[in-house]
# Entry
Amino acid sequence: MFVKLAWRNLWRNKRRTIISISSVAFAVLFSAVISSFQKGTWDHMIDNVVRYYLGFIQVHHKGFWDDKTLENTMALEDIPAAAMNDPEIVPRIESFALASAGDITKGVLVIGVDPGKERTISSLHERVVEGVYLKADDQGVMVAEGLAGHLKLKLGDTLVMISQGYQGQNAAGAYPIQAIVRFGAPDLNKQLVVMPLSLAQYFYGTGERYTSLVVNLPNGRDDLDDALERMHRIFPPDRFEVMDYRELMPELIEAQKLDTAGAKLILWVLYALIGAGLFGTILMMTRERTYEFGVMLAIGTHRSTMGAMLWFESVLIGLVGAGIGILLSWPIVWKLYSSPIQLSGKLAEAYEQYGIEPVMKAAYEFGIFLAQAEVIFIISSILSFYSVWYVMKLVPVKAMRE
Amino acid sequence: MPIIEAHGLTKTYNPDKVPVHALRGVDLTVEKGEFTAIIGPSGSGKTTLLNIIGGLDRPTEGKIRVDGIDLSTLTDNQLIDFRQKNIGFVFQSYNLIPVLNVAENTEFVMLLQKRPKPERERRVEELLKAVGLEDKMDKRPSELSGGQQQRVAVARALAPKPSFILADEPTANLDSKSAFNLLDIMEQLNREEGITFIFSTHDSRVIERARRVLSLVDGEIAKDERR
Ligand SMILES: Nc1ncnc2c1ncn2[C@@H]1O[C@H](COP(=O)(O)OP(=O)(O)OP(=O)(O)O)[C@@H](O)[C@H]1O
Ligand SMILES: [Mg+2]
# Structure
């Protein structure tokens, strides 16, 4: 009954209600699209780095992350046996080298991987655009597309690298390029060389040592906390450091936080404006019915009943608006999710300069839509306090003298 | 037992600033089945008296008992329930909830009382027949004439079977034909079903129909005639 009453009351002034609902719908539409976009672009960017390179969790010899020298590596015999047998724990050796081809020289990032295990973790094999993916005993390397371009190298050419090896040895080698791989993250694409683990160990003269163990999460981010706990249990903290991706790339995570906070601020301003408009409607909807409330009170309607009705009226405007906004934003978000926008030209360059893949992609998450509805629900509930307060203090005799 | 007993009712508005003495000591007893008019010039306190009898307002001094209950003992919330159960109200105009149709307006108080649906439907039909609006059930108040709206208000007031109906100038905004028609219905309900009506009015043609006439002058009962 009071639901029906509230619903009909909304339509007493159709124009006003439609304007209010539209403004809420617009805010929700805007906010859902912006939030999805913002989250999607960042997730995509972070995923690019995490999935194809960094991994969600890494374990190192204590101190390696701050001082990435080969002296800070883990010897096979020091690593708990449980870890080496765990199929989700993938060993790597990572260091730097100077690569040259012809008269071009460039600093590169070398990673030695276990090609089989690496498949599960970084989907490196999916990144191969030319040639064949590594096998454990191959003597060739895979070079990132950008780097190959820079060095003017093609499949089958030889890459020459020199570096400082373990305990100050000289490291030098020449390797045929057996595959070209493409990375989304521009930083990686410009400097990565991938070698079979044993070849890299030989190159750096480390023997059976590793710089890092990357922990695979079959279900992605959802498993992070459990896996972290497990790693902390396996690796004694006096000799190892266990780091998650947020610690591994703090700048990126900071940038994401800042950007998200900025976007949130804009959305809050938008919601505040919409809220002010909604409040005007609620104010009018309440005051113009003073006499009617007086009659209702006189014939025995409790203030709480009327308050509930008025609350429901506000919330209805809010939720109908939010519903429409969500319905409108849904296809847009879906579109931007299923076919991300590839940026080009100046904008793309700007992105790349910051090491960001020039792709804008929306996240397609129910939670983002739900969050808009929740915000609107809360705003309209808070605004309805005015009408509730108004009927709570209403005196029928006074109301009916107006 | 009388349904209304008032002793020494006074009502002073704005006691601190410029006091308005709307009632200055009213004694009144109303028995079941009365058809009583309260008359008096504008500002004589008719509305104030009806509001106090109806538990919409509290007297400054004096005692008021309705159905044997001393209204000063009830809290505001208890008064709301009391009004809902014991008293039917008809105001001068805009009695009805505009977004509800005639039938819904009529059943409104019964809904507040959570009466079962079949009972509500039966009662609505019976009452709308009694006020001659059985064919207007689905109409909104704005689609009715002023007289028809007042008849719906009477039907709504009667719906929960209150002890009496208070009507403050129910015919003030009606043309004479509608006014007579409303009076006819009220009289008939009074005669045939023994429903007690207390109404205020300025209208001499309405006054003629009352069986008891209380004249208020300056907040006091100047005359109390029975016919
Ligand atoms: N809430 C109020 N505040 C201040 N004064 C009031 C209030 N209600 C009524 N009065 C005053 O009390 C006096 C009696 O008013 P009341 O409305 O009872 O008269 P009435 O007989 O119903 O008049 P009318 O025929 O014009 O309806 C008037 O002088 C009125 O101005
Ligand atoms: Mg009056």
Notes: Residues A 401; B 13-14, 20, 22, 40, 42-48 surround adenosine-5'-triphosphate (ligand 1) (CB under 6 Å). The interface with chain A takes residues 51, 54, 56-57, 77, 80-81, 83-85, 89, 91, 94-95, 97-100, 108-109, 111-112, 156-157 of chain B (CB under 8 Å). DSSP finds seven helices and ten strands in chain B. Residues 176-193 of chain B form the longest helix (18 residues).
